[in-house]
Amino acid sequence: MILGNSLKSMYRQNIVVFTGAGISAESGLQTFRGTNGMWEDYKVEEVASIEAWKNNPELVLEFYNKRRREIANTVPNSAHYAIAKLEEKYNVTVVTQNVDDLHEWAGSSNIIHLHGEITKARSENDDSFTTYDIGHNDLHIGDLAPDGSQLRPHIVWFGEKVMGMYRAAEAVKKADIMIIIGTSLKVYPAAVLVDFATIDCRVFLIDPEPIHLSIPKYEHIQKTATEGMEELTRRI
Ligand code: OAD
Question: Which fold has domain 30-73+118-155?
Answer without folding.
Answer: SIR2/SIRT2 'Small Domain' (3.30.1600)
